[in-house]
Structure formats: structure tokens, C-alpha cells
Amino acid sequence: MKSMTLTSYGAEAPFVEADLPRPLATPGHVVLRVKATSVNTIDTMIKNAGKDLPLSPDLPAVLGMDFAGVIEEIGGGVTGFAVGDEVYGCAGGLADLQGALAEFMRADARLIAHKPKSLSMREAAALPLVGITAWEGLHRAGVAAGQKVLVQGGAGGVGHLAVQLAKHMGAEVSSTGTGSDQMAVIEGYGARAIDFKAEKIEDYVAAHTAGRGFDAVFDTVGGDNLPNSFAAAALNGHVVTTVALSAIDLTPAHFSGLSLHVVFMLLPMLHDVNRAVHGEILSNLATLVDEGAVKPLLDEKTFDLSAVGGAYARLQSGQAIGKVVVDV
């Protein structure tokens, strides 16, 4: 089968076309023909950092975590799926799990779900990692109807889904971004857009929460931005982040009694723990998509498998609006 493989790690390391053996279905797994895969920030981190990250696969490596495709073979013990089913998921591209930058992929059946019927393969491939992350973060923060929620980075991959899901849950949603394109995306989802370059934290907290702070802050930027999220949260509020790889002074969080939730959605793949939860989230997400409550945002640029290097560069350029997708 055709694949795009890394034979070395690093920012300049090229993807190399390679002919690899087609994977076989093993108990609890399916083999699917990959139709599309999307690029996530963690994919670019693995490519650039290699074995400096404990989750990076051995070389030669086939990356690509998210996918949408068609089941071609089913292993023993798999129920709920049949050959020919259109599915989507996040099930490879790290550790010892082959990724989706190939014509075929073996996936743990617990990590996949039937693709939303209303979406194309390209659209479905954009959802799994960011959708599961947004879902987990909002539920861990206990977001509920009537609450005031702030999403930091609401035009990004996780952010644009967190905005939509929080709106669906009945929350009053505000979201940060900058530039007319990002502001338009946020407002298009019915959220209040806040230009973080033009508005001070204390000003938008005063304007939109009467100075009380937001019940939950979903920070998809993280790192050095976390103190800003602490400052925007209400007393005893919740702060969710997807990026906690930083030394941060927690003093402000302490004096506000904040709960900090770190979402690292790769844990089920890395440690084979609660994998079925991801399949359940994807099933629930597909229902919401087909009901019209949630829709993925795709970047305007298109790439095929042979141009995957360009797709990675597009994401890292910071110019993409929405998920970068590769057609396989």
C-alpha cells in the first residue's frame, strides 16, 4: 500500500513515499481504507521533535491521527460494524500505532464510530481529535445552560468546536481571536467575539460578566496564556487547557479557588485505558452534527497524500482558518 513515511525527524525532514504491507485485521480491530486525514498540532510536534516526545513512534514512521474511511476487514470480537461502513476516528500516528498517512490503516474498533451521514469524508476527518478534546473539556468543567463560558482561541481547531458545543449546551459563549477572519468565524457560531489584541481582560470581564468572571474558561492556547485565563475566571470557576507544557505560577488560581483541568486526549491510545469512551463521544458528536448543532470548519487549501508536507507547512504557518485536511 502507498504511504507517506518519515525516515528522520525534524522540521526539515521530508515525507517519503513508501510501499508498505497492507495491515491485517486482528481481534478487536478493523482495517479501513483511509479516504481523508487531518493535520493536528500534535502531528507537527511529533514530526519536528521526534523522540524528544515520549509518544513519538519509532522510525520509519507513518503519522496521522485523525481519519475518515471505509471498513474493508473486521477482526474477531468486533461488533457494531460491518464491511463497507463509513467510519471516522483518531486511532494511530503515535507510539506503536500506524497512522493514517497511508491507503490502509488498522484501528481499534473502540476508538471509531460511524461517520456523520451529513458530512463528506474530508469534513469527517477534521473532527475526531479536536471534537473529543472539546467534548471532554466542557464536560470536565461542568458547563451547563445559563453559564458564562469563555473560549480562548475560538477560531482554532479545538476552539471552534468548543464554541459550538458550549452553545448547544445552553451556555452564553464569548471567545477570543484577532483579525476580521477569526472574528467572523466566532460570530458565525453565535458567540460574542473578543479581539484579545484590542481589549484588556479586565475590560471584557467587566463588560460581559459584570466583573464576576466567567464560570468556565476553555483555553486552547495555554502555556503563557494561562494566567490570562485565570484572570478571566470567576471565583471557584473552572479553567480547561489543552496546553500545560509550561512553568506557571498558580498563585492567582489559588486565591480564586479555581479548578484547573488538563485535557490530554491521547491517553486512551497511549495506555489502552477507556478507549470505548472515545468511540462513544464520536457517536454522540456524529448525532449532533447530523442534527445541525455542530459543523467542522475546513481550511480553504486542499492537499493530496503526496503533498502532505505542504499540509503540515500550512498548519504551522498560522495562516490556516479551520482544519487542514489531506485527501488519501
TrEMBL record:
What organism does this protein naturally occur in?
A: Sulfitobacter faviae
Q: Which UniProt keywords apply?
A: Oxidoreductase
UniProt xrefs under SUPFAM superfamilies? GroES-like, NAD(P)-binding Rossmann-fold domains
PROSITE patterns for the chain: QOR_ZETA_CRYSTAL
UniProt xrefs under CDD domains: MDR6 (cd08272)
| Name the UniProt record assigns to this protein | Zinc-dependent alcohol dehydrogenase family protein
Listed Pfam families = ADH_N, ADH_zinc_N_2
SMART domains linked = PKS_ER
